[in-house]
Specification:
Layout (H helix, E strand, L loop, with lengths): L5 E5 L7 H17 L3 E3 L14 H17 L3 E5 L10 H12 L4 E5 L5 H5 L20 H9 L4 E3 L11 H14 L1
Parallel strand pairs: 1-2, 1-3, 3-4, 4-5
Helix pairs in contact: 1-6
Length: 182
C-alpha cells in the first residue's frame, strides 16, 4: 500500500494556547485522513533547547526543522486568515512561497471574506500616504497569484467558523479542492 501524501499545515495556530492549537490541528489531521492524506503540523518536531541557548539560535533551529518538514511534504494547506494586521501571518506566507518554489501545490483558506483593500481602509492610502493595492483579491497579489499558479486555490469563508481562525467546513472544502486538482 502506498504511503499517503503528506500535507504541511501552515498557519497562525502555532501561536495559540496549546489546547486550542491541539484541538484545531487534530480536526485538520482527522479531515485529511478521511481523504487519505497525512497532516503534518509545524509543531510535529520534537526540539529540545538548553537553558543557555540564545533565542536567535533557537529560532534558527525551529526554521530548519520546519523546512525539513516542508521538504518531506507533497503539498501545503495554509490558513491565510489575517493575523496581527490586515494580512496573513508572515511566517505562513513564507511557507507557502517555499512550497511553491519547490513546485508543490499550495492551497489556502481565509475566514475574512473582505478583499485586501477593504481591510486596509477606505481611502486607498495607508497612514503614511502609500498606495494600497486593489486587485479585488483576498490578500497581496503575490500570495494569491502564487497559489493559483501552483495549481492550488485560495478558498474564502462564506460564513464565520466555529473559531475566529478555523472552520472545519472551510478546511474540508480546501481538502476537496486539493483532491479534485490532482
Amino acid at each position: 500500500m502506498a504511503k499517503p501524501k503528506r500535507i504541511y499545515l501552515a498557519g497562525p495556530e502555532v501561536f495559540f494556547p496549546a489546547t486550542e492549537h491541539q484541538s484545531i490541528v487534530a480536526q485538520k489531521k482527522r479531515l485529511l485522513r478521511e481523504y487519505g492524506f497525512e497532516g503534518v503540523d509545524p509543531l510535529d518536531t520534537e526540539l529540545a533547547f538548553s537553558e543557555n541557548q540564545a533565542k536567535p539560535e533557537r529560532g534558527q533551529r525551529i526554521y530548519l526543522a520546519n523546512r525539513e518538514l516542508m521538504d518531506s511534504c507533497d503539498a501545503i494547506i495554509a490558513n491565510l486568515t489575517p493575523f496581527r494586521g490586515i494580512s496573513a501571518d508572515p511566517g505562513t506566507v513564507f511557507e507557502v512561497g517555499y512550497m511553491i518554489g519547490q513546485g508543490k501545490p499550495a492551497f489556502g483558506f481565509t475566514l475574512d471574506g473582505r478583499h485586501y483593500r477593504e481591510r486596509a481602509g477606505s481611502t486607498g492610502l495607508d497612514n503614511l500616504g502609500n498606495t494600497i493595492e486593489d486587485f479585488e483579491m483576498s490578500d497581496n497579489l503575490m500570495i494569491e497569484g502564487g497559489i493559483s499558479d501552483s495549481g492550488g486555490q485560495l478558498l474564502v469563508a462564506e460564513q464565520p467558523g466555529e473559531h475566529r481562525f478555523f472552520s472545519a467546513e472551510l478546511f474540508r472544502r480546501c481538502v476537496k479542492a486539493m483532491v479534485h486538482s490532482a
